[in-house]
Amino acid sequence: MIAPNHDIVENDMWPISNTQTFVNYFESNGIEQASCGGVTANFSSDVTEMCGEGTVQYTDMSSGDITSWEWTFEGGDPETSIEQNPTVTYNTVGSWNVTLTVNGEEGATFMVEDYLAVYEIPEVTVDPFDGACIFWTPYELTGGMPEGGDYSGPGVNDNIFDPEAAGLGTHTITYTYISDDGCENFAEEPLTVDACTGIDEIKESEVQVYPNPATDIVNISSKSYMVSVRIFSYTGQMLESVELNDKIYQFNTTSYPAGVYSISIETEESSISKRLIIK
Prior knowledge:
- By secondary structure, the chain is mainly β.
- The chain has three domains: 77 residues, Immunoglobulins (Immunoglobulin-like), CATH 2.60.40.10; 70 residues, Immunoglobulin-like (Sandwich), CATH 2.60.40; 75 residues, Immunoglobulin-like.
- It is 4% helix and 49% strand.
- The protein has two helices and 23 strands.
- It has a five-stranded mixed β-sheet with strand order 2-9-8-4-6, with no helix packed on it. Strands 19, 20, 21, 22 and 23 form a five-stranded antiparallel β-sheet that branches.
- It starts with 21 loop residues before the first helix and ends with a strand.
């Protein structure tokens, strides 16, 4: 074995056995492994993505006999640091580089492009809600932007609002949206459920829905002129809406899956809901 100064330090140990590594064999004969010296720069952090703004804790992962650290944080505050494990704040949207240079017997630099990503928090709005009567059929909430979010609050289930379940009074409805980057924001609007005592509901006997259960054709007859008929699924999705001025209305159910449906009927003076079963 030849030393760095070209002296022969060992020339009588070959071959070694197959069950020993070179290092183990040398150490068993009193020869220590020399250190190659130098330093290697490396780092990690508690987060690499954030929404809007936040703080990042960086951790030095370098190796070797290090005497100093020099950090550069693009888009961060502070922009530079000589601490070993600095804390940095970001509040500007973008993808930012991070560079660490360590010094010892030799110097080493480790830089990661686009290491820290700051995503934009989405702007979320929701239109004001009209008031609802407590006897209304459950209906789908709309007006939230960007589209694709979720509504929550009293009486809300799967974006369907049930006035009876919510109860009388003013309720806060929240619209929450999560962007593709995973950033979340929300908007709120009040929705008032009223007893609507000034609206006289039609007596059950004045409106007939038949046959019920139905298989194909359904007839609706009213003693008063109907101005609209709306048909809802059990989840509250409106399937059909018709404006009319008649005492009789007929529709075909063959395209509807079997299940329970709700029919909302309005006249010039009042309204009523009927349940329909389709086989």
